[in-house]
Amino acid sequence: MKKIAKQVFILLTIAGWIFYGLSVRISISAFVLRVGSLISRGFVYISKINTTSAKRFFLSDM
């Protein structure tokens, strides 16, 4: 009886670690995706500002 309980405990521990690792990995990937989308949005915003300022600069230079 004790042996079976120990095996079940070991299996539960392994399953818990796998679940924990997966959840951590999922949360990290979600965080990376969120940060990546924010960064790409920022780049798009900066490039828009740069193109408008460049147009203004060239138009005023003409």
Describe this structure in a few short sentences.
By secondary structure, the chain is mainly alpha-helical. The chain contains one helix and no strands.
Structure commentary:
The protein has a domain at 25-62. It is 97% helix and 0% strand. The chain has one helix at residues 2-61. The longest helix is centred in the middle third of the chain and has 60 residues, at 2-61. The model has no long low-confidence stretch (mean pLDDT 86).
Mind sketching the topology for me?
Elements: H1 2-61
Keywords:
mainly alpha, 62 residues, 1 helix
Number of strands: 0
Radius of gyration: 27 Å
Spans of at least 5 consecutive residues with low confidence = none
Q: What is the average of the pLDDT values?
A: 86
Helix content: over 70%
